[in-house]
Amino acid sequence: MKNETDILIIGGGIAGISTLYHLTRMGWSDVMLAEKIELTSGSTWHAAGNLPHFSNSYNVMKLQQYSIDLYTRLEKETGHPVDHHQTGALRLAHTRSRMDEFERVVAMSELAGLRLEMIDTRRMEELHPFLDTTGLLGGLWHPDDGHIDPTSVTNTLAAGARQGGNYCAQQPG
Ligand SMILES: Cc1cc2nc3c(=O)[nH]c(=O)nc-3n(C[C@H](O)[C@H](O)[C@H](O)COP(=O)(O)OP(=O)(O)OC[C@H]3O[C@@H](n4cnc5c(N)ncnc54)[C@H](O)[C@@H]3O)c2cc1C
């Protein structure tokens, strides 16, 4: 194993592996990652894997959009499966203030180039026939939301980094 490198990343969860992958894409060629147990053995392995496009912050929304775009192309780019499912998601509003919040997020999403949509209860029932809409004022529909297997994504990003000629080293626990 090498004992000198330009950049050493500690920890093979999504944060470390994503850093490794993106450095590779930026052209860094001497990067090493050290993981004390095995890739995704930390909290990444336990993550639910939800991929929402919902935030009250424009910057976070752009970050979510970038991640989902990346996850959508990653399987084709690397040849490794990522188990990504774009199921769409519904958010429910019981109060006027929640509707106001959704409308503000939709306006922001238009600026960010996302497809979020305010919908009425009839459309909600069409999308989810088992939903009881009693007491609901409306909701927010995100057609591009979904979920992904965090372990697959991490291992696929690691494969992408290796394809870029970088190191992804593991050390025994
Ligand atoms: C696709 C995806 C979806 C997610 N969805 C959700 C969600 O719906 N809800 C939610 O709450 N969270 C979600 N998360 C976030 C998740 O719960 C964690 O917050 C996140 O995965 C933490 O990543 P991490 O790399 O910071 O930490 P970790 O995964 O814990 O990685 C740290 C790694 O460092 C290693 N390490 C520690 N010390 C050393 C050392 N001294 N030397 C070498 N190695 C060391 C550990 O063994 C571990 O592998 C999601 C994450 C992903 C990837």
Short description:
With about 170 residues, this protein is α+β, with helices and mostly antiparallel strands. It has two domains: about 1-50 and about 150-173, FAD/NAD(P)-binding domain, CATH 3.50.50; about 50-150, D-Amino Acid Oxidase, Chain A, domain 2, CATH 3.30.9.10.
Q: What's the topology here?
A:
Blueprint: E1 7-10, H1 14-25, E2 31-34, E3 50-51, H2 58-78, E4 84-85, E5 89-93, H3 96-112, E6 117-119, H4 121-127, E7 138-142, E8 146-148, H5 150-163
Parallel strand pairs: 1-2
Antiparallel strand pairs: 3-8, 4-8, 5-7, 6-7
The structure holds flavin-adenine dinucleotide.
Flavin-adenine dinucleotide is lined by residues 10-16, 34-37, 41-44, 47-50, 148, 150, 153.
Structure description:
The protein has helices at 14-25, 58-78, 96-112, 121-127, 150-163, and strands at 7-10, 31-34, 50-51, 84-85, 89-93, 117-119, 138-142, 146-148. It is α+β, with helices and mostly antiparallel strands. It has two domains: 1-48 and 150-173, FAD/NAD(P)-binding domain, CATH 3.50.50.60; 50-148, D-Amino Acid Oxidase, subunit A, domain 2 (D-Amino Acid Oxidase, Chain A, domain 2, 2-Layer Sandwich), CATH 3.30.9.10. Strand 1, helix 1 (14-25) and strand 2 (31-34) form a beta-alpha-beta unit. Helix 1 packs parallel to helix 5. The protein is elongated. The model has no long low-confidence stretch (mean pLDDT 92). Residues 10-16, 34-37, 41-44, 47-50, 148, 150, 153 line the site of flavin-adenine dinucleotide (FAD).
